[in-house]
Amino acid sequence: MLATAVPIAPGEAKAERRAAPPASTLDLLRPPDTVTAFTESGQRPFTQGATGHWKADDIVVTTLPDGDVWQVRLQAPQSAVKRLHLRWHLPLEVIRLVMGDAWERAYGDLEWRGMVPDRVLPWYFAAWDGRRTHCFGVQTGVAAGALCFWMIDGEGISLWADVRSGGRGLRLGERVLDVCRIVQRPGRDRESAFAALQAFCHQMCPNPRLPRQPLYGANNWYYAYGNTSATQCLDDARRIVSLSPKGHANRPFSVLDDGWQTGGTGSGVWDHGNEKFPDMPGLAAAIRQAGARPGIWFRPLAAAPDVVDGWRFSRDRHCLDPTVPDALQKIAADVARFRTWGFELVKHDFSTADLFGRWGPAMGGSITDDNWTFAEGQGRTTAEVIVAFYRAIREAAGDTYVLGCNTISHLSAGVFEAARVGDDTSGHEWSRTRKMGVNSLAFRAAQHNAFYAVDADCVGITHDIPWSLNRQWLDLLARSGTATFVSPSPDAVGPDQERDLRAALALAADPQPTGEPLDWQQTVYPTRWRLMGREATYDWIGPEGVAPF
Which has more pLDDT, 264 or 158? Predict the structure, then answer.
């Protein structure tokens, strides 16, 4: 039987615990103490009118209860609004540790930390007071009309809502914007921080869209890295089927990653394969005949050389602008084509970087540059544009599963069945797998089957990574209940790898309880986990330690 005691922060004795604050001390389901708007013409402090109503010139912000959430709305018939800042003054000296989420994938940068006033916490955060874990955030998907993040300091809590259209101020006209829906969950006694966050993720996303069975199988990227062919992909499918549980109703996926398309890796034309992939419908059928479920990768916003100029972004001519109706129709047609070819999973990639010109670590509190906007003008927020783009993919996919990679996590929740929650692991560098894989799984596993099926990325099986380390990553994925994909190089699968793969895939094919990191408040790479009802310990470092270069 595992101990149920809540872990103590490093260096803290039990006798030094202070009493946890009453839930009302951290109550955000009330009007903020101050509201400020940032427009293209400058900063606008608000004056409060009736309870929950704030006004500055033509700008009106309304913060009112709607059941168990707090609805924030914006009206601005004339002003071009860029950001809103809502501030609650609260005594927070009892808070010991804070953690938040990421805009898109995590990059080995998620962690519990002490209070850092300028730390950007996208979408939600959890605050631990030594006994209980209090959670605050905004609802997911279509309920989020802005890109929201939190900041917390010893004097209070701030919610920032980026309502820009691209990098310009939003021009609403007579429309009313539903900015966000604030939710909170007071901490409970005798509840782990993980259990608290897991329950809160379900609260933020009341209607997730989930796969019918666990996702597992093969993806060829982390050994082939784009150097692939239809023959090789069919061999991959046969290999993963031979390693998977025979006769199981949940068949493994075999995913063709980047490299099948015309135009080279990272970009391309999606209406046919290249010379090494002459018959895409035939390949999908052959993979299915081999006993696997075919999946395919693509980059939806990549603009082919012959694409109409009017479909391209003004900010980056290499990318499609999803507010151009014909461009969005083209993206939807690509997804629908994959479905008619026979692919049962579509993995789409790069769209956040293509939209914003930035990767997650560079976003901070300003996810993109100023002074650009979409082709349609400044009438919709970036969040609204992204939701419409995601929904077009979703509708075109029909009953095909959609896995988002480099997608905005909170906006994809409830829309796609699965999401890559961390940056790429590796078939060559163990340190990268540890950083991107272990960290992302630990700090985003609470989202599993609450937002979507969590995919913490593949086990890249090559001669470059010691199997003594890689097999642990495989074991954790399989026992965690999350998606388990492997990239086994044919020449790197010996008897040991084959034995461990068979055992892991047999677990991954069936639903398992979501794995819980037990020491995640003390380390960014948790080694102690509760998996399938038992405690497991892993060694992510190895006997030689970590090299600083």
Answer: 158
Cβ-proximal residues to 116 (8 Å cutoff; 6+ apart), any chain: 98
Tokens 């046969």: give the residue.
Answer: 238
Q: What's the confidence (pLDDT) of residue 25?
A: 56
Q: What is the pLDDT of residue 48?
A: 82
Query: The whole model's pTM is what?
Result: 0.94
Question: CA 389, 445, 467: angle at the middle one, nearest 5?
Answer: 110
Whole-angstrom distance, CA of residue 79 vs CA of residue 221: 48
What is the distance between the alpha carbons of residues 356 and 65, in angstroms, rounded to a whole number?
Answer: 33
In the prediction, which pLDDT does 332 show?
98
161: nearest Cα among 256, 61, 257: 61
The confidence score (pLDDT) of residue 549 equals 61
Query: In whole angstroms, what is the distance from residue 108 CA to residue 204 CA?
Result: 24
Chain position carrying tokens 């990679």: 405
The answer on pLDDT for 7 being more than 70 is no
**Could you tell me the two tokens for 345?**
């999973």
Q: List, in sequence order, the alpha helices (H) in 154-271.
A: 193-204, 221-224, 230-243
Rounded-to-integer distance, Cα 221 and Cα 216, Å? 15
Burial class (CB in 10 A: 0-12, 13-18, 19+), 398: exposed
CA distances from 540 to 91, 439, 519, 530, 537 (A): 39, 11, 13, 16, 10
The answer to whether 347 and 296 have CB atoms below 8 angstroms apart is: yes
Asked if 168 contacts 370 with a C-beta cutoff of 8 angstroms, the reply is yes
Residue spans of beta strands (DSSP E) within 247-298: 253-256, 261-262, 269-273, 293-298
Question: In whole angstroms, what is the distance from residue 293 CA to residue 417 CA?
Answer: 16
C-beta separation of 103 from 347 below 8 A = no
What number of other Cβ atoms are within 10 A of residue 317's Cβ?
A: 10
Residues in the chain: 549
Q: Check pLDDT > 70 for residue 21.
A: no
Say how far apart CA 443 and CA 523 lie, in whole Å: 11
CA within 13 Å, CB half, 151: 15
| H or E segment to which residue 180 belongs | strand 176-185
Q: What is the average pLDDT score of the chain?
A: 93
Query: Are the C-beta atoms of residues 102 and 360 closer than 8 Å to each other?
Result: yes
Q: What is the SS3 string spanning 33-58?
A: CEEEEEECCEEEECEECCCCEEEECC
Strand partners, 109: none
Per-residue pLDDT tens over the stretch 448-506:
999 999 999 999 999 999 999 999 999 999 999 999 999 999 999 999 999 999 999 99
Q: Residues 77-86: what's their mean pLDDT? A: 97
* Residue located via tokens 């693509």: 298
Q: Which domains does the chain have, with CATH numbers?
A: 14-204 (no CATH), 216-515 (3.20.20.70)
Q: How confident is the model at residue 401 (pLDDT cuts 50, 70, 90)?
A: very high
Q: Which DSSP category does 79 fall into?
A: -
Please give the average per-residue pLDDT across 383-395, as a whole number: 98
Q: What digits encode the pLDDT tens for the residues 90-114?
A: 989 889 999 999 999 999 999 999 9
509: left (phi over 0), alpha (psi -120 to 50) or beta: alpha
Q: Amino acid identity of 218?
A: A
